[in-house]
Amino acid sequence: MGASDYLEDALLDHVLGGSTFTQPANLYLALFTSDPTDAFTTANEVDTTVDDTAYARQAITFGAASGGEALSADAQTFAAVVYGSGAAAYDVTHIGICDASTAGNLLYHAALPASITRNTGKTLVFDNGTVKVVPG
Length: 136
Description:
By secondary structure, the protein is mainly beta.
């Protein structure tokens, strides 16, 4: 996963003495219909690109890092798609880890190995250990 501009700057400041970075109280997995980029293009998040009224970021936790990577320690279940007016199936191409359930900052982001088509009536589950953060 790539680190966002926000996280890169915060970690540099923290390590080099510019300012202290405070660990986020909670982390959330977000879905995107295209690359959110290091600058965090919020317009690419599902809640702004499609009319899925059931979409919400899902809480995520991680186990201790080992071998230069950290794996999700729990499963994240996104509710079945509920279409608003004029909505249609949509593809999720990227995921991100944010520090708030809405708004906030993007910390890491990555492309999925293959896009996932979201249709009405189907949940989307990321099983325990399937979200991997490898800084790079």
